[in-house]
Amino acid sequence: MTTTDIPVTPARRGGATGPKRPGRPGGRRREGAAWVFLSPWVLGASVLTLLPMAVSLYLSFTDYDMFNAPSWVGLRNYTQMFTEDPRYWRSVGATLRYVVIAVPLQLAVALAVAMALKSMRRGRAFYRSAFYAPSLLGASMSIALVWRAIFNDGGTVDNLLGTGGWVNRPEWALFAVALLTVWQFGAPMVIFLAGLQQIPGELYEAASVDGASRWRQFLSITLPMLSPVVFFNLVLQTIQAFQVFTPAFAVSAGKGGPADSTLFYTLYLYDRGFVASHMGYASAMAWVLLLAIGAVTAVLFRTSRSWVFYADEEGR
């Protein structure tokens, strides 16, 4: 038999040499494997986040003391919160004052230290780790108690300045808590430092040739080029500031004093839910806080269009 006698099957168009297989069993297997790997996160998010949120939303419309079955009261918790509870509004005011004072100060200190570290030639890694350490320790109750001792009557601040203990004076207690937050500037500092290292050095060289001072370079180059990082840190630190609890609890011994000057929102929520056993009322407060943080974050994103500069938008 010669090669010309061998029957030849014509090839299919597109390079296929056999019958077309229905479906994509390989793709389905990969999708199934992906869901298997995602299942711990899905289970954790459902059981530890979504389910508690649903229960909390239900409890916000009930009268529940954690010992008896919840009874439906509708919107009574919300109306009582907004119209009958003066301490609620004092907690809102204290929290807003804290956010306005602590967040800008913390970001300013973090940016200043990051710029100082960027210009260092030796020891940058050591100082970066040293300045970051308070961010790991500052949220602990032990550090908050030490902070209270420093600002208490007869403490370090009283001995140095002779102003008396800050934590016992209504006009200064909130500043003591805010300074503890400013002291924890390590996390935004590291992010600022990473952003500063991405700014091209040629921009500063050209500005120096044109005779621009360091302050002008900071305003015209550093801040615009760093604005996405500033915005990122601003959003994160604002959200965290609205949820501050441990420093206020330690400094005021859980009472929010003196004269409710450190009665932050989460501290009052804790008082209503776990001290007074009004868990339904506390759940309503938690949902109002969630909506408030969402609204503030939306405002920050909306206003960012006028001051945040992205390099990829330059040619648009």
TrEMBL record:
Protein name per its UniProtKB record: Sugar ABC transporter permease
Domain ABC transmembrane type-1: 92-300
Family label: Belongs to the binding-protein-dependent transport system permease family.
Domain of life: Bacteria
Keywords carried by this UniProt record: Cell membrane, Membrane, Transmembrane, Transmembrane helix, Transport
Region annotation (Disordered) ranges: 1-29
Species of provenance: Streptomyces paludis
Compartment(s): Cell membrane
Biased composition (Low complexity): 10-20
Membrane topology: Multi-pass membrane protein
Pfam entry (one): BPD_transp_1
